[in-house]
Automatic annotation (TrEMBL), chain A:
<comment type="pathway">
    <text>Cofactor biosynthesis; adenosylcobalamin biosynthesis.</text>
</comment>
<dbReference type="InterPro" id="IPR002751">
    <property type="entry name" value="CbiM/NikMN"/>
</dbReference>
<keyword id="KW-0169">Cobalamin biosynthesis</keyword>
<feature type="transmembrane region" description="Helical">
    <location>
        <begin position="175"/>
        <end position="201"/>
    </location>
</feature>
<dbReference type="GO" id="GO:0015087">
    <property type="term" value="F:cobalt ion transmembrane transporter activity"/>
</dbReference>
<keyword id="KW-0406">Ion transport</keyword>
<comment type="function">
    <text>Part of the energy-coupling factor (ECF) transporter complex CbiMNOQ involved in cobalt import.</text>
</comment>
<feature type="transmembrane region" description="Helical">
    <location>
        <begin position="108"/>
        <end position="127"/>
    </location>
</feature>
<dbReference type="GO" id="GO:0009236">
    <property type="term" value="P:cobalamin biosynthetic process"/>
</dbReference>
From TrEMBL, chain B:
<dbReference type="GO" id="GO:0006824">
    <property type="term" value="P:cobalt ion transport"/>
</dbReference>
<feature type="transmembrane region" description="Helical">
    <location>
        <begin position="68"/>
        <end position="85"/>
    </location>
</feature>
<dbReference type="InterPro" id="IPR052770">
    <property type="entry name" value="Cobalt_transport_CbiQ"/>
</dbReference>
<dbReference type="Pfam" id="PF02361">
    <property type="entry name" value="CbiQ"/>
</dbReference>
<keyword id="KW-1003">Cell membrane</keyword>
<keyword id="KW-1133">Transmembrane helix</keyword>
<dbReference type="InterPro" id="IPR012809">
    <property type="entry name" value="ECF_CbiQ"/>
</dbReference>
<protein>
    <submittedName>
        <fullName>Cobalt/nickel transport system permease protein</fullName>
    </submittedName>
</protein>
<dbReference type="InterPro" id="IPR003339">
    <property type="entry name" value="ABC/ECF_trnsptr_transmembrane"/>
</dbReference>
């Protein structure tokens, strides 16, 4: 769920756009460099953006009996790294605003900061830390994807609390309210997205191992021994 | 038909042939007006102008427009309600000016959403992306965004087909099976997107692609009358809103 068009006051909309800009510009430079060096990357990066958009269209069953949609940035951050996701996530948000009316244009900066910057960086950090602690790929993917989802909604709650502090208890009270509505309810959905990430990577390790090795997610498999010379 | 109702409306709109920058200026002006003017009567006037222009001269189907507004409505309602509830001494209550604040928030958000939808339902993304080049967005970024847009529909079609096949095999009949199917579905879409990108790349490399994906832009000249009418509309909204206060 993204912050709708016109919901944030003008000052906050501008402030979050300025906050997100360095990350998105850094991502754009990384993408431009990659495309300059390898023009064929354009198509793979475009495919990654389209996959993030489409992943957010998959319905997951939720504990309340209804359904929810994954944010889709966790797997992208693990596969393509956070700087690239800062740009691809912003492009996906622009498409969601103009093709689905999810989010908006003046709130693009705030949504990009939560969805394309904080979510991917927290998710990627959790993934790397879990791997560094000696865990296997799948537990690390679960931690990365679930925390990317949760961090996105915690950031959205902070943004809303800063814009709409509680009348008596200020920003702290506002944060309690918005976390209660947008983040606590998201915990089961974040766990669900983590499980989806594990199922996705389990299939990919079997069906797309060369791609995962090329992206650095899995170490290159040792070469199979060949028959010795006679 | 592309499968996304807003995109379908944009391709079929009577304003499809108008210059994207003209529509961008009009909608952008309405978005900014909705954001900075007081909700009463500014938001009402902006929302009304966007809806009348979309359903009238741009001939966007009313059902498509209303269904698109329905999506952000859930966030707007929950967000506005949370903003005007106050937590004090362990109990919940209404903030002193709860009605006016909630009304203002809903008004700003609905008017802004209607203004964005005016652009979205009249201008396909493939017309808007070249306009980003004029805003000095790097060509490589615009190209990646263009490929993303074009692949979206292929992948959404794959998603629908695989999901339908899974549903026919009882793949979504229980939460456990649904999760397993969702994982397989995401993996199938990702590997298909890689495969599709690789095949496109090989095809383009065979045709000598070296410096990027160049396409012939459609000629959509700017209209001074359209721009002047838009300016008059925005000035009238600002004048009426400030005059009413």
């Amino acid at each position: 769920m993204h912050i709708a068009e016109g919901f944030l006051p003008a000052g906050h909309a501008v402030g979050w756009t300025i906050a997100a800009a360095p990350f998105v510009v850094h991502g754009a430079r990384a993408v431009a460099k990659e495309v300059r060096e390898n023009p064929e990357s354009t198509l793979l990066l475009g495919a990654a953006g389209a996959f993030t958009f489409v992943l957010s269209a998959i319905k997951l069953p939720s504990v309340t009996g209804s359904s929810s949609h994954p944010t889709g940035t966790g797997p992208g951050a693990i596969l393509f790294r956070p700087p690239v996701m800062a740009l691809l996530g912003t492009v996906v948000l622009l498409f969601q605003a103009l093709l689905l009316a999810h989010g908006g244009l003046t709130t693009l900066g705030a949504n990009a900061f939560a969805f394309a910057v904080v979510g991917p960086w927290v998710g990627y950090g959790a993934y790397r830390l879990t791997r560094a602690a000696g865990a296997g790929l799948l537990p690390a993917v679960f931690a990365g994807v679930a925390l990317a989802d949760l961090a996105t909604y915690v950031t959205t709650s902070v943004q809303l609390a800063l814009a709409f502090p509680d009348a008596s208890t200020g920003v702290a009270g506002g944060l309690v309210k918005f976390l209660g509505v947008f983040a606590v309810t998201q915990i089961p959905l974040a766990i669900g997205e983590g499980i989806l990430g594990v199922l996705l990577f389990r299939v990919l390790t079997v069906n797309a191992r060369p791609e995962l090795e090329r992206l650095g997610v899995l170490p290159p498999a040792p070469l199979a021994p060949t028959g010795g010379a006679a | 038909m592309t499968g996304l109702a807003v995109d379908d409306a944009a391709w079929a709109s009577a304003w499809r042939g108008r210059a994207p920058t003209d529509k961008l200026l009009l909608s952008g002006g309405l978005v900014v007006t909705a954001l900075v003017l007081p909700a009463w009567p500014g938001s009402l006037l902006v929302g009304l102008a966007a809806v009348v222009l979309a359903l009238g001269p741009a001939r966007v189907p009313a059902g498509t427009f209303l269904r698109a507004v329905r999506w952000p409505l859930a966030f707007i309602a929950v967000g506005a309600l949370t903003a005007v509830v106050t937590v004090d001494g362990g109990g919940l209550g209404w903030a002193p000016d709860a009605g006016a604040r909630a009304g203002g928030l809903v008004g700003h958000a609905l008017a802004g959403t209607a203004a964005v939808l005016l652009l979205a339902t009249t201008t396909p993304m493939s017309d808007l992306l070249p306009a980003l080049r004029r805003l000095r967005v790097p060509a490589a970024v615009v190209e990646v965004a263009s490929v993303t847009y074009r692949l979206l529909f292929v992948l959404l079609e794959s998603l629908g087909a695989v999901r339908e096949a899974q549903a026919a095999r009882m793949g979504w009949s229980s939460p456990r099976r649904s999760y397993r199917s969702a994982g397989l579905l995401a993996a199938a879409v990702l590997t298909r997107s890689w495969d599709r990108a690789r095949r496109m790349q090989e095809g383009l490399a065979g045709r000598g692609m070296e410096t990027g994906l160049r396409v012939l832009p459609e000629s959509q000249p700017s209209s001074r009358a359209f721009l002047a009418s838009g300016l008059v509309l925005l000035a009238a909204i600002v004048g009426l809103t400030l005059g009413a206060r």
